[in-house]
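Example 3.
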Amino acid sequence: MFRVDLNSDIGESFGNYVLGMDEEVLKHITSANIACGFHAGDAMVMDKTVTIAKKLNTKIGVHPGFPDLMGFGRREMIISYDETKNYVKYQIGALWAFAKSQGVELQHVKPHGALYNMAAKDAQMAKAIAEAVYDVDKELILVGLANSVMIKMGKEIGLKVANEVFADRAYNADGSLVSRNIKGSVIHDRDVAISRVIRMVKDNKVTSVTGEDINIQADTICVHGDNPSALLFVQEIRKALEGEGVKVEPICSFIK
Amino acid sequence: MFRVDLNSDIGESFGNYVLGMDEEVLKHITSANIACGFHAGDAMVMDKTVTIAKKLNTKIGVHPGFPDLMGFGRREMIISYDETKNYVKYQIGALWAFAKSQGVELQHVKPHGALYNMAAKDAQMAKAIAEAVYDVDKELILVGLANSVMIKMGKEIGLKVANEVFADRAYNADGSLVSRNIKGSVIHDRDVAISRVIRMVKDNKVTSVTGEDINIQADTICVHGDNPSALLFVQEIRKALEGEGVKVEPICSFIK
Amino acid sequence: MFRVDLNSDIGESFGNYVLGMDEEVLKHITSANIACGFHAGDAMVMDKTVTIAKKLNTKIGVHPGFPDLMGFGRREMIISYDETKNYVKYQIGALWAFAKSQGVELQHVKPHGALYNMAAKDAQMAKAIAEAVYDVDKELILVGLANSVMIKMGKEIGLKVANEVFADRAYNADGSLVSRNIKGSVIHDRDVAISRVIRMVKDNKVTSVTGEDINIQADTICVHGDNPSALLFVQEIRKALEGEGVKVEPICSFIK
Amino acid sequence: MFRVDLNSDIGESFGNYVLGMDEEVLKHITSANIACGFHAGDAMVMDKTVTIAKKLNTKIGVHPGFPDLMGFGRREMIISYDETKNYVKYQIGALWAFAKSQGVELQHVKPHGALYNMAAKDAQMAKAIAEAVYDVDKELILVGLANSVMIKMGKEIGLKVANEVFADRAYNADGSLVSRNIKGSVIHDRDVAISRVIRMVKDNKVTSVTGEDINIQADTICVHGDNPSALLFVQEIRKALEGEGVKVEPICSFIK
């Protein structure tokens, strides 16, 4: 049987600023990556997000980012190994408090933005993140870019890992994502995107931007809930997957 | 047998900024209140502080404050009940991650600065803090100003509480601290301060600024490690207490 | 001839967070209060806002707030006289740099949120703000709640002042705003709101919540551009005023 | 006649955190680079620093940094051209307000930490900084690493520039600083450091770490006031320069 998780970045509002259609998207995904106040989110938003996720029985995870609210964690910062490790620990703990208060468990950790992208390639940064997760709670699943250094390092440290794939992004022949600055990096045709996702999940294959078929493990698919159109696409992907006999479940139910 | 705890605010450095003689004062106290990044402290400082406290076997607790680094958490902020509750939860969680990583337990929560002072009088704020602590971990001891609304509310919510007294501060007849703006609020004579502390611990009495003896419960004494002189005073208080047969121990060993 | 200014809070976006229909509302108002990075806004947003305002020939002013992005500057903070003064100076300077770069002049300063409300009643806070403005540039017009301590203090310090009125808010008999917590504080009937505004501008009168007519000077009317409905209301107010023969102009054209 | 400026980073305290012996070092230098609240400093510190500098007749300049208080502006951040430009403008304006209030003029702009180092090599970042300065006030002198891209770009944009040299740092053969990670990057022998400084000022030469003599323009020498020993060294350098007939003056008196 085929199984896959649908994850989305949630809880990215801050103070008076509202971002994302969280309540809606939480109904359609199986795992929520919750911002922890460094690149987005705050204590009020975290509490509210955990409350809604619990009610909907959506699994929650930590979404740690760089300490850069102004840049939404999307700007690379050259921070040390220890800084990376401690920033991740801090953010895990912060979200843990809200999960603990509500009697729910943290399922996973998925780095955000520039931290995610850097850790996909930089072994030291990946190691710092993986160690932070392991030290705080070795049962947490580490989510990273499929086939990346982050996944490799998570395994080495002894964590359960989940390979993440993107429905709407083009891949290089080496399995990395085509940079957003390059034309063709984003797949706008929804039918093409859905076909690719189904192939990744069922055949573990995707066609790279240069035409080769590459191997890819698809444990979890990243989806977005920024606007009504994105939200609709989440529902379409889910329906298409289920129509193909793929069971859409949280990663904790099949990543061991 | 008489028992008392010595507590101090620790881990108040931030980034490049160093504050306090933490490594020294941690040797002489029994409980450390560790800043959590809102009014002071950061993830690097928290990690280092927990590491040192563990090595010295000093108990650690959470020292949550207002989100006001620029004002060091000493400025009153009119925040809502839910904001208070969630800010405290967030900070408990953040420190928990470092404690968990090191295999040590959090012993207590003591609000910082303006949050401490407001919660000593404001029942709603005190309730929000007590509920936050209870919801995250009901075994945590809540430290508040002796006889204050914070202590009363902690008990009502079902928490273990520790009454805090100050060696160097004058008390009003109602048990509240004389405001720092008023002359005579700080006791500069060390011998007088020490005598008062011993009387508070052994007889549960202190003479108020207006001359009356008032009842006061002294579970923990607040001391400072800002400079060599303050550090020396900590050692003097401890020695004097022990000379009087008072056992200086962390609150967890006698607050049940 | 009757003249009045229409002002609105603009440039309240931050980083990735978008707030307000700035480009639209800037077309219909005569004075924009631009956030300066303390309670909202950032350097990118400030640059963009000044650029658009310049193109539309809308006058710009400084909108200083408390250093509380998480609370959007709406939470009271008990800060010192010097802190107030220096925080206001800092924010004036920050916006000045963008105005200077574009070759436009700052017209006014209007405190934001809790700073505005506190300064309407607290003479010390009002004085600190007025002195900050005067020290940096004594030609800047200080905008405050009509009849408030802020206006009085601005005059005393030697500044030009503009009395601000609200179309959609009820007034107490003493000229202060009815607190938002009280029922009836906000006037939802647009026709009533517009009639009140016209009366305030032409007759300098408004009926208080308790039924008395009170004197009120209306130099500038606060309007909002948060959503399409609010934006439409701005256009309706402007049209109604112009229909009554009131000239809608920036305060600098009639406040001397 | 030989002339040189002595500059130091000043006003790096923040809130309750005190850094540097500002009042002392301001007596011995001719130009102060004042932090503006991004990587260090706050409105209170800026006001105090400008006040002291004015009293001592020490020239003041803007010391803009990355928005990274936690990293003290020493961590590289990959920010855009527009972000760089607007962050620099914002910080110039913020300091301008305090200078304007005190009736003193801003003399120069010197980027801080990682921004300084990146701009020494990255032409786009250098250009963004130079344009920001030019747009706000084209009379401001831009201070950058001697012979660097920052200096070149400042000239191209049309600014007056000042070449900065370091007494205690080793130089590569291409005129760049030897990285702090490399052994021998810092010159600890004070006599050697002083001799090098005098040679740079009088002969425009310095011996690189690989033994070659390189050409270097020394308009201003960077000194530190972090501790009593550093402070003493400032006095020694100044005395040695004056003993060699070098006039120690602010850059505005000889950079045209």
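The beta strands of chain B are 3-10, 31-35, 59-63, 106-109, 141-145, 161-166, 205-207, 213-215, 220-223, 247-248. The radius of gyration of chain B is 17 Å.
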